[in-house]
Structure prediction request, 145 residues.
Amino acid sequence: GIFCEQLRLAHFGSLQGERKIRDFMDLAGRTLDALDKGTVAAPALLDELVRSATPLLAALNALTLVYEEQSQRHARQLRRDLQAMMGDIKSIAKQARMVAFNAQIVAARSGAPGREFAVVASTLTNITGEIDQLVEQAMSGNMAA
Prediction:
């Protein structure tokens, strides 16, 4: 679909891609019909169809370039958004690690009553380590794309 203004303008505006495609399809239909019926107009229609193919291809190439440019721009923005999100997740994981570390200290100072709390703090530390690994995997996979 047409997902941006630049592509819409190229398709319906300056490049007149929509009109050129429809005109070519109409001419192709008339040409095929004339060839099937064996009319005298068939050779002239076929010549006109062949001549109209070059401008159509030029328009399709131009539309493709606009689409590729916009797709690349969109992909770059998605990568930036993903990197920002991964940075936020990393920051939250770092804060959770600090909380877990402080909780382990409090649990150690509490002696026997703090052992159960130490298990929770240790589990939180493990979870933040897993989050870090996932973020690193996502970032390295994203950079390769």
